[in-house]
Design goal:
Blueprint (H helix, E strand, L loop, with lengths): L4 H22 L3 H22 L4 H28 L5 H26 L2
Helix pairs in contact: 1-2, 1-4, 2-3, 3-4
């Protein structure tokens, strides 16, 4: 599982989110930093939990939560971008990539369930 692309990418993304939130906090943007930190780090936590799921239902549920958190993270990044010019483009791109990967995982898990 350590070589899982979603595990590695979501962990690296969380690290970048933490560093960006430190910048936001230094600019006294505590509320937005808190929201972004919570959702941006939750993607990896839920993805990791999904990989340890006790059932297919648990697996899909945890990845579904990770997808919702990724979508929420994108919302906060877009909101920050709309109100400030300093949101790193790579954060937007990496969040979009995580969303694509999570959608693919969920779709593939539904297909494998239908064919079982």
């Amino acid at each position: 599982m350590k070589d899982s692309p979603i595990r590695n990418k979501s962990f690296d993304f969380a690290v970048e989110i933490i560093h960006y939130c430190d910048v936001l906090k230094a600019n006294n943007d505590f509320e937005l930093a808190s929201q972004l930190l919570r959702s941006g780090t939750s993607i990896g936590a839920n993805s990791r939990e999904a990989q340890r799921g006790v059932s297919k239902k648990d697996f899909k549920n945890k990845f579904g939560i990770a997808l919702k958190e990724a979508d929420e993270t994108m919302y906060w990044l877009e909101l920050l971008r709309a109100t400030r010019a300093n949101v790193p483009q790579n954060l937007i791109e990496k969040c979009e990539e995580l969303i694509r990967i999570l959608v693919s995982i969920i779709k593939n898990s539904q297909l494998s369930t239908q064919h079982s």
